[in-house]
Amino acid sequence: MTPPFSIEAEKTVIGTVLRTPNVLPLAIQELKPEYFYRNEHRIIYEAMVELFQKGIGVDLITVFNEVTKKLNPFNMAELVEFDKNVISNIHFDYHVSLVKDKWVKRELIRLSSKTMSNAANETASAKELIAEHNGELYGISHEIQRDLHIGQLLSKLVIERSERKQGMRGIPSGYFSLDMTLSGFMKTDLVILAGRPGQGKTAFAINLLVNLAVKRKVPSAFLSLEMTWEQLLERMESVYTGIEHAKLTQNNLSPQEQDKILLAHEEIGNSPIYLSDMPRVDINTIRAKISLFKAKYDVEVVFLDYLQLVAGTGRKEAYERVSEVSMGLKAIAKEFNVCFVALAQLSREVEKRSDKMPQMSDLKESGQIEQDADRIIFLMRPEYYDIETIMTKGGEISTKGKILVKVAKNRHGSIGELNVMNWQPEFMRVVE
User: Which of 217, 260, 322, 382 could be a cystine partner for 399, CB 3.0 to 4.6 Å?
Assistant: First the structure.
């Protein structure tokens, strides 16, 4: 089968740029060199793009000199022919879109063939094949997104604003005091939930998961690199039912509690929650997983426990690896239009200070996290450090059974006041 292509459209695009170089920025927004089917056309267009990036004017001479570095022999007369065949640039957009459309169709054929070939190979599981296929398919579809005029964007904003509740732009977290500061969890945001070990990060994340997915039916995914799905479910059961976590892990339930668990299972089991306990993954695997969850379940919020356990690509130092992961998570949040909540460990510097409340400098192994995150939330349990009382706006209070929730960064507004919440360890609950 002959692959889809349009040699005439490719010639017209190149000829128009040679005749009217000021249209090149328009082409660059839509076309990459690999979109051209004929190798010669690909090299000529690539030369034009490189000249533009270097700030060198595009004309017959400069393009010819650049092309001869990669394509030899190459005749100036061939380049002149492109220019001769163009009368005007009126239909330039159409020819650009045609070149791109043909490339997309070739990519779809390639992906279909690759999927068929891999499916016949027994080395990969069906789930892995689906994740890989959906990831590549989403990548292709992402390439055909066009920039929108500001008028279109304003219309979309009016529609979006009319569909949401007054004063709440994001998805309510279930914690009033937190929502007053954050205005909910917003899609495309990277939210970092950070603290030292033992401060309740995973418990707080599971409470958020229950609030969002069980109580509000918001499709959510939880990727655990540390705990098994059994451990996650037992924590969810305890949070939702108020049955002591120890009783669940020891299977020491009264008949009444067993009935309560069965009733809870109906509610939790019908919730749009998708769990994945993966021992070791890199950012590409996470992207493929979210691609699958987005395509199949339209997830809106994703939790990751925890950031520093994600493997890097290649051999990298800890700082470089964490920076790569941080940037990758933000890109995934934006690409798939989800709110990505990533748990993160803090450095031991917290333990060395008399003031145990975390600071930005405590983010372990990377300042890149601070830069990439839209929101950063610190957790600290004073009681853990034998701190008996703390000062709040309302005066001095006992720290017994308390957890401090501090919004340290909020790209969309102020950081608000320190939130003091109740910590109920026997139920793995955080309540206001």
Answer: 382
- Stretches where the chain sits below pLDDT 70 are 87, 142-153, 155-157, 159-168, 279, 313-316, 364-367
Q: Which two tokens stand for residue 69?
A: 């570095």
Q: 140 and 192, same structural domain? A: no
In the prediction, which pLDDT does 230 show? 83
Task: Supply the DSSP string of 282-298, one letter for each residue.
Answer: BHHHHHHHHHHHHHHH-
- d(CA 145, CA 99) in angstroms, rounded, equals 15
CA separation for the pair 289, 189 (Å, rounded): 18
Tokens standing for residue 424: 């109920």
- Sheet strand arrangement including 402-410: 273-277, 220-224, 301-305, 339-345, 190-195, 375-380, 402-410, 419-424, 429-431
Assigned domain for 262 exists:
yes
Which pair of structure tokens corresponds to residue 49? Answer: 């793009």
User: If you count DSSP H runs as helices and E runs as strands, how many of each does the chain have, helices first?
Assistant: 17, 11
Structure tokens at 13: 């695009």
Structure tokens at 120: 């016949």
Do 174 and 280 sit in the same domain of this protein?
yes
Q: What is the pLDDT of residue 7?
A: 92
- The Cα 349–Cα 341 span in angstroms is 24
Domain that holds residue 376: 167-431
Q: What is the pLDDT of residues 202-250, one digit of tens each?
A: 889 999 999 998 888 999 999 888 878 888 888 888 888 888 888 888 8
CB of 407 within 8 A of CB of 178?
A: yes
Instruction: Report the distance separating Cα 275 and Cα 209, nearest Å.
Output: 11
Q: Which of 87, 118, 147 is the last residue of a domain?
A: 147
Q: Whole-angstrom Cα distance, residue 382 to residue 396?
A: 13
The neighbour count for residue 65, using CB atoms within 10 Å, is 12
Q: Which residue, 95, 113, 147, sits at the end of a domain?
A: 147
Calpha distance 47→39 (Å, rounded): 12
Give the pLDDT confidence of 337-359 residue by residue, as tens digits: 899 999 988 878 787 787 878 88
